Amino acid sequence: MFRLLTILSALVIGTFAFCATAVASEPEPSSEETSLEETAIDDLSAPQELVDDFGLAHRQRIYEASRLEKRHALMYTALFPGIGNFYAEQYALGTVAMMAMVFSGMFLGYGIVNDHSDLRTLGITTAVLTYTTSGTAAYLGVRSHNANLRRSLHIDNPHSALFSHATVESPEPYLLLEVQWQF
Fold first, then answer.
1. Could you report how far apart the first and last alpha carbons of the chain are, in Å?
2. DSSP notation for 21-75
3. Please, which residues have CB within 8 angstroms of residue 48's CB and are 6 or more apart in sequence?
4. Backbone dihedral region of 37: left (phi > 0), alpha (psi from -120 to 50 degrees) or beta?
5. What's the rounded Cα separation, in Å, for the pair 99 and 166?
6. What is the DSSP string of 88-156?
7. Would you say 34 and 151 are in contact if contact means Cβ atoms under 8 Å apart?
8. Looking at the predicted structure, is the pLDDT value of residue 105 above 50?
9. What pTM was estimated for this model as a whole?
10. Could you report the per-residue pLDDT of 46-92, keeping only the tens digit for each?
11. What are phi and psi of 44, to 5 degrees?
């Protein structure tokens, strides 16, 4: 029993350590790349008010204010599984993780009170799996949220945001299909 607890706690600690090192090793965009992108935007022949209102610097400020921190998701998950998923806007996964943790606590408590080793093992195993999967899902959810935010603000490709409002010209006349109804 003690071996099982040792192995399972090493698994949980290893998962959180892996996620924490992955958070620390991700590169941030350098200020040199940012200044090159800003000069490229200023060189375009877009209207000046469009560049001022939706320039790369403005979009980066929006991104910095709206992005989620991976370490916060992991800390919330360490407090109680599911809270990190709520932080990452994964409400269904957070609810499932919280319910699984409640059930594991019930199994563990009943196994301790009535001296059932199989229920204690089931409760501990369920709790460890819940912590591991909830932490991993919260970490990946924050990564996905930040990637979607960067994509929607066109931070990685700054030129596409300037002209996303432009209308598409009509196709060639021979591509149009004219349907006439006769009654």
1. 84
2. HHHHHSPPPPHHHHHHHHHHHHHS-S-HHHHHHS-HHHHHHHHHHHPPPHHHHHH
3. none
4. alpha
5. 48
6. TT-HHHHHHHHHHHHHHHHHHHHHHHTT-HHHHHHHHHHHHHHHHHHHHHHHHHHHHHHHHHHHHTTSS
7. no
8. yes
9. 0.60
10. 444 444 566 788 888 888 888 999 999 999 999 999 999 999 999 99
11. -70, 160
**How far is it, in rounded angstroms, from Cα 141 to Cα 168?**
35
Q: Which two tokens stand for residue 47?
A: 């209207």
Looking at the chain, how many residues does it have? Answer: 183
Domain assignments of the chain as residue spans, ordered by start:
2-22+53-162
Nearby residues of 125 by Cβ (< 8 Å), 6 or more positions away: 4, 8, 104
Hey, what amino acid is at 147?
A
Beta carbons of 74 and 84 less than 8 angstroms apart:
yes
